[in-house]
Design goal:
The protein is α/β, with parallel strands linked by helices. It contains six helices and nine strands. Helix 1 links the parallel strand 1 and strand 2. InterPro entries: Class_I_gatase-like, DJ-1/PfpI.
Length: 191
């Protein structure tokens, strides 16, 4: 089974990734693996309780197909996650970031420097500074105002576009045989 990692953290906006996890886990070829900084219960914004399969620090030598970063108000990019993001980006593995935290972590790790992306953080406000730090880390010249953007191996999304994000992640993993298959899936899911 090929693994796709999902970084989880307290108060994550869990609905943004649970559908993607479901689609990955129902495929024959992939398995969703949750990772976190610590081996403890993680409480999502929905109130659901999660426990990571493994720790971020354990992933440096693990082969996986990609990493998905959930959204929420979270700005803690520790060296072990930054290194993992950088390694996967260098290996051209799939990297997905949704909503605030997901896109912020990709930007802070330097992944968005040479790709087009989207984010709900369109300006750096005092509220953003309080959570994510003083400096705006987004390369604003690469920003595109769209719900989901895929450029090379990087997929970014607004939080309310989680169905389209899931479809693009699945497409990036080769789950659809054609673009029309992906569009049929989206049409069915949005009925």
């Amino acid at each position: 089974m090929k693994e796709v990692l999902f970084f989880i953290f307290d108060n994550m906006t869990d609905y943004e990734i649970t559908f993607t996890m479901h689609m990955i886990n129902t495929s024959e070829n992939f398995k969703a693996i949750t990772i976190a900084y610590e081996d403890k219960e993680i409480i999502g914004r929905s109130g659901a309780i999660y426990r990571p399969h493994r720790l971020v620090s354990d992933e440096q030598n693990i082969k996986c197909e990609g990493l998905i970063l959930c959204g929420g108000w979270y700005g803690d990019l520790r060296p072990e996650l930054k290194d993992l993001i950088g390694l996967l980006h260098k290996e051209e593995k799939l990297l997905g970031g949704i909503c605030g935290a997901g896109t912020f972590l990709l930007a802070k790790a330097g992944v968005l420097e040479n790709v087009r992306y989207t984010t709900p953080i369109v300006e750096w406000t005092d509220e953003h500074r309080a959570v994510f730090g003083p400096a705006d880390v987004f390369p604003r010249n690469n920003y595109i105002e769209k719900p989901v953007v895929r450029d090379q191996n990087v997929i970014t999304s607004l939080g309310n576009s989680f169905i389209d994000f899931t479809a693009e992640i699945c497409n990036g993993l080769g789950a659809f045989e054609s673009e029309s298959d992906k569009e049929a899936f989206l049409a069915f899911m949005k009925q």
